[in-house]
Specification:
The protein is an all-alpha fold. It is 72% helix and 1% strand. The protein contains 20 helices and two strands. A two-stranded antiparallel ribbon has the order 1-2. The longest helix has 31 residues. It is globular.
């Protein structure tokens, strides 16, 4: 009996509710949720991508491309975050309603798997500048990757509170670094007018540029419900997500684009070195990348918890961190742009199906999970996702937008025509409480 009493103590539960609705008493305000989400989007890899965009577009066109791309990303993510705040559920738990009990396992693999890869990319982005700044032999790169992989996983292991505290430190410092670097670049480049007059040295289609921008946080943004669910209201979650994924992410692209345009270097470490900021820069970046990567670790932790129906994310954080660090050791640092394009193509359709299902099928009212008997696979949503992915891959235009729109429309059409025939309806207890 004593052992049972110990097992039932609240402290033994995961404090972040990976398989439950977040209760009212655990909800957070605007500052807290915004800090965590902005910390997620403040990522030096985005500056790296911004430098490549800056080399491909005249400055005026670049600003327009960044505005449109980040607005699309921001609205998409903010909608998902608002849904999460109302329901109190992670993305993979929302996927149970949309894809079914076993269909949600695809979301676990897609979202958790990409975040494991993203974890590896970020570990590499952390280790390489540190080795350069400290003038260490190149052979130190691998030990640095292992060290930073361990530290990044540690914060996620302690959950939302750990990430929140780290973001309160990292976000202000990274903001200072970004504006500081941009001011030096403007000075060294002869001012804004001189930078605006530069001729692009590379080429990139509009579709590819939009895919890179949306892909910068397509996977992470689709998992914004993991943190948006802690917001006290949907309005708080929507505002926090829009601030993070439109404004903050857009600033990161702009910082990188201006630095790349002036110094003709796509690597952030090289830009900071040229400005005499490398030592300060890597100290700021340590916090910046940490706030991004602990979110990635948290995301694959909750995906693993859903996949194996274990109400504890921590074992999956540890396993994913090991895999991600191994991935970093294989050269993930060089795969950022292809990785972003792939995520911008195949992940937004999943978010599109979830949004359409919540808004138009469930009509913004989800029964609590304990009152639902989930069907194994909700084929209308699965087929819609596949169609969205094909549209993103093959239709002309902007792939992420194609994927989201086609997935949403396809789900609504298929649900209306074939839901009963395909067995795509969950069984809901008539006594159900709704959120």
């Amino acid at each position: 009996m004593a052992q049972e009493a110990v097992a039932l103590q609240p402290a033994a539960r995961d404090p972040d509710y990976p398989l439950e609705h977040v209760p009212v008493e655990a909800r957070k305000g605007l500052v807290s949720v915004t800090a965590v989400l902005v910390g997620f989007t403040f990522f030096s890899g985005t500056m790296f991508a911004g430098a490549q965009l800056g080399a491909a577009y005249p400055f005026g066109q670049l600003l327009l491309v960044l505005l449109i791309g980040n607005l699309l990303l921001g609205l998409y993510v903010a909608t998902l975050a608002g849904i999460a705040a109302r329901s109190g559920l992670t993305t993979v738990l929302l996927s149970r309603y949309t894809l079914g009990r076993y269909g949600a396992k695809w979301a676990d693999l897609l979202l958790g798997g990409t975040q494991v890869g993203w974890f590896g990319v970020t570990v590499a982005f952390m280790a390489v500048p540190f080795v350069r700044a400290l003038n260490l032999p190149e052979s130190w790169t691998a030990p640095m990757m292992i060290l930073w992989g361990t530290l990044h996983a540690a914060t996620a292991y302690f959950g939302y509170r750990g990430m929140e505290k780290l973001s309160y430190i990292g976000v202000p410092l990274m903001t200072i670094l970004g504006f500081w670097s941009m001011a030096i670049a403007l000075r060294d480049g002869g001012g804004l007018a001189s930078i605006a007059a530069k001729t692009p040295t590379e080429t990139m289609t509009l579709a590819a540029a939009m895919t890179v921008i949306v892909g910068s946080f397509a996977s992470g943004g689709t998992q914004a419900p993991n943190w948006g669910r802690f917001a006290r209201t949907p309005t708080i979650a929507f505002t926090a997500a829009l601030t993070a994924f439109m404004v903050a992410n857009g600033l990161m692209f702009l910082f990188g684009a201006i630095g790349g345009a002036v110094y003709q270097k796509p690597d952030l470490a090289d830009v900071l070195a040229a400005q005499g900021l490398l030592l300060w820069g890597v100290l700021f970046l340590a916090l910046n990348l940490w706030t991004t990567n602990d979110n990635a670790a948290y995301a694959f932790g909750v995906a693993g918890a859903e996949a194996f129906n274990v109400n504890n994310k921590r074992p999956f954080i540890l396993i994913g961190a090991v895999i991600g660090t191994i991935f970093a050791l294989t050269g993930a640092y060089n795969l950022l742009i292809p990785w972003m394009i792939a995520m911008g193509t195949f992940i937004p359709p999943l978010g599109g199906v979830i949004i359409a299902d919540y808004l138009f099928v469930w009509k913004r009212r989800l029964p609590r999970m304990e009152y639902v008997t989930f069907v194994p696979v909700r084929w209308t949503a699965v087929i819609a996702y596949v169609l969205g992915g094909l549209a993103a891959k093959y239709l002309p235009g902007i792939p992420p937008v194609n994927g989201v729109v086609v997935a949403m429309v396809a789900h609504l059409v298929l649900q209306g025509l074939f839901a009963a025939r395909l067995g795509s309806e969950h069984e809901v207890d008539p006594r159900a409480e709704y959120v």
